[in-house]
Amino acid sequence: MHVAIAGAGGRVGLELARQLTAAGHTATGIHRNPDHTDAIAAAGATPAHGDLIADDAQTLAAHLDRADAVVFAAGAHGTGTEQTSLIDGDGLLKTIDAARIADVTRIAVLSAFPESVRSGELGPTYEHYLRVKKAAEHALTESDRDWLILRPGHMTDDPAHGTIAAGAALPDEADVSRADVIAFLVSALQHPKLGRAIVELTDGDTSITAAVEATVARSAPRTQR
């Protein structure tokens, strides 16, 4: 399996590259900051400079050549509402178009736990982030691509436990190991029957394998092509 990672220089992207290559897969690490090149290569991915703000979809599509899936792990990471709109919003829309141009059938997105409706007021900046993410992800669900949207709780640097809680709507946000989130993603991307699904993830007692199987069982059918 070959996976293109948009936002490969972040902690999620680097962990994904490490786990993919450790499992015998290959990855292209798309990144904007040239300072991230060495870290991406050290994680096992092939670095590819791509700018989700400046590049158009046709340019980005060149980095998706021969990819079985593209994972959108990019984000503005608190740099302001304008950057959030450009990266988390428009960046995902460009990635959808790039996947269509490159004929990549599957897009996976690392999103956010929808806590704004469960934990009260979170402030205008984070509420803007959630609105932008929701609009872009809605566009993904309306596209002709197969998609997987992961909504993890607060990701920690804890070692992988090999277990997780996964569901369409978990009752509470909780911490979750970043390594376990990525293990779930890598396993899900390999599953031949995975359709279209949105899944929330927190720490839990279900094995990664069982959690993926349950997600696959309730996923919508794959797009017919």
TrEMBL record:
Keyword field: Lyase
Gene: yhfK_1
Pfam assignment, any one: NAD_binding_10
InterPro entries assigned to the protein according to its UniProt record, in alphabetical order: NAD(P)-bd_dom, NAD(P)-bd_dom_sf
E.C. numbers: 4.-.-.-
GO MF term set: lyase activity
Record bears the keyword Lyase: yes
Domain NAD(P)-binding intervals: 7-192
Superkingdom of source: Bacteria
Name this polypeptide is given: Putative sugar epimerase YhfK
